[in-house]
Design brief:
Blueprint (H helix, E strand, L loop, with lengths): L3 E7 L13 E6 L12 E6 L3 H14 L4 E5 L7 H10 L3 E3 L2 H12 L19 H12 L7 E2 L8 E2 L2 H8 L13 E8 L6 E5 L6 E2 L2 E3 L6 H13 L3 E12 L2 E10 L3 H4 L33 E5 L16 H7 L23
Parallel strand pairs: 1-2, 1-3, 3-4, 4-5, 8-13
Antiparallel strand pairs: 6-7, 8-9, 8-11, 9-10, 9-14, 12-13
Helix pairs in contact: 1-2
Length: 352
């Protein structure tokens, strides 16, 4: 596998001076270098505590390294919604505070095959194969605006109004089945007991924040669908505690659950260590740590915890569903974890 180049720019005491990865030649610095960052398989890790300085460095780096994967590393990456929003606007591809997530993202960057003929319409990276383009787009560009036009895969060339969605639905890797829509949805209001903050997902294409949730799969129970969606979109394994609302409009049906993290890292002192493990660290199940998601994929750009009072000041995909966050924050009633009897007939084709 071709070795890439990783630029690690760190200051403010960040313990990244020994950071390494087997797939990258690492160059350490405390300020942005004057040398050119290669276009092929390059990544940049910008770390520090001074957020304004990190924002500026991200903007500058994006200007002269348009195809590089930029990781914005800050201790508040999963606790500050506006920090995440601004970092992506400045040109970051990923915002995190977890070394394990950095390693996982770099593994995916390194796995890109650049022996093809596809040029990414978002950043201009050349040489992508159809398989690597499928992986590249959400990892690098899930929070970027949608693009319309023609699919760059020669065997397709279909016209589309949403290239990201077209790629995800029409060019799945071999063996992966397309999603089957059921018209049944589950959303989850997740509250962290230790401080009362709520888990929100940073939705795709710059849409802002929303509740974890999505479509329930055929043959899946409503509860299992809610737990799976929270894990896929927000990276957190949750324990369902009750029901907040049930909605039925013809064949469109939705249940909004109340949940808490199965593991609360605030209580168990699992705050990410500032020391740097080696790249061959034994991988752990991320969800078992209770850490919100920060590695982008088609499901979301990541997740973070917010105070209910912040809902008025952060970008939202939709404000209507988030009224249930305020309901819980204000001590509103949560119904038992069961489907209300009057709705049982509407969900006869799904287990609760």
């Amino acid at each position: 596998m071709e070795q890439g180049v990783l630029l690690v720019c760190h200051h403010d005491g960040e313990a990244l001076s020994s950071f390494s990865h087997p797939s990258f030649a690492v160059r350490h610095c405390t300020s942005l270098p004057t040398f050119n960052v290669p276009a092929s398989k390059s990544a940049c890790l910008l770390a520090g505590n001074a957020r304004d300085d990190l924002f500026q460095k991200t903007r500058e780096l994006r200007m002269f390294a348009p195809t590089s994967f930029i990781i914005f590393y800050h201790q508040d990456a999963t606790e500050d919604a506006m920090l995440r929003e601004e970092a992506f606007k400045c040109g970051a591809n990923m915002v995190t505070c977890y070394i394990l997530h950095v390693q996982e993202a770099l593994n995916r960057v390194a796995a890109q095959q650049l022996q093809g003929s596809i040029t990414c319409p978002w950043c201009g990276l050349q040489g992508l194969t159809p398989e690597s383009f499928y992986l590249h787009q959400p990892l690098y560009h899930i929070y970027h605006a949608n693009i319309d036009g023609y699919c760059p895969i020669k065997a397709c060339r279909a016209s589309t109004s949403n290239l990201a969605r077209h790629l995800h639905h029409r060019h799945l890797p071999p063996g992966q089945k397309p999603e089957e829509r059921t018209g049944v949805f589950a959303l989850v209001v997740v509250r962290r007991p230790s401080d009362g903050r709520f888990l929100l997902v940073q939705e795709f294409a710059g849409q802002g924040y929303w509740l974890p949730g999505g479509g329930v799969d055929k043959g899946e129970s409503l509860q299992d669908g809610a737990i799976r969606e929270a894990l896929e979109e927000a990276g957190v394994l949750v324990k369902l505690k009750g029901v907040l609302n049930v909605e039925v409009f013809g064949s469109w049906r939705r249940v909004i659950f109340y949940a808490e993290p199965a593991v609360d890292p605030q209580e168990q002192l699992l705050r990410p260590p500032q020391s740097t493990p080696s790249a061959n660290i034994k991988q752990v199940e991320m969800s078992s740590l209770g850490w919100p998601k920060t590695v982008p994929d088609f499901e979301s750009a990541g997740a973070c915890y917010v105070d209910a009072a912040q809902l008025e000041s952060i970008p939202l995909r939709s404000a209507s569903e988030l009224r249930f966050v305020k309901h819980v924050a204000e001590g509103g009633q949560v119904e038992p974890l069961e489907l209300p009897y009057k709705y049982a007939s509407y969900f006869a084709d799904f287990m609760f």
